[in-house]
Specification:
Endonuclease I-creI; 140 residues
């Protein structure tokens, strides 16, 4: 069973907080879409760690990523993209168990701000969307 310190260290090294924004200008959508994802990717033979991570958090999904490039291995990816799970499980965990690396902690703080803006439906107006874009550009 994984403990909080192990998870924090693992995410510091291999995890990512990611935000993707589709605007009406960049797609066929009429409204902007902001997609937030917390994920961690490990090589296929380490999938058990991702399964334990999923059990620990009681949320998220595991996906296989096949990579056929020379000198690359197939991977698995633990991913949480449900906004409620991000807000109620992932964010509180990393607030209680802070990341150690400055860059990852900064990405988490920016991710948290963007999630808050999306929860407040700020991504549905141009001012909020502009703010989200500005925060996203500061992420690693």
């Amino acid at each position: 069973m994984l403990n909080a310190d192990y998870i924090t260290g693992l995410v510091d090294g291999e995890g990512s907080f990611n935000v993707h924004v589709w605007t009406p200008e960049s797609s066929v959508r009429r409204r902007a879409l902001v997609e937030l994802r917390f994920y961690l990717k490990l090589i296929d033979k380490d999938k058990i760690v991702l399964e334990e991570l999923q059990t620990f958090f009681q949320c998220g999904k595991i996906y296989q990523q096949k990579d056929y490039r020379p000198n690359h291995q197939h991977c698995n990816r633990f991913e949480v993209f449900n906004r409620k799970e991000l807000a109620e499980v992932i964010v509180p965990f990393f607030e209680t168990h802070p990341l150690r690396t400055v860059s990852k902690q900064r990405d988490f703080e920016l991710f948290k701000q963007i999630l808050s803006l999306v929860q407040e439906k700020e991504h549905l107006n141009s001012t909020g969307l502009s703010r989200i874009h500005s925060l996203k550009t500061q992420m690693h």
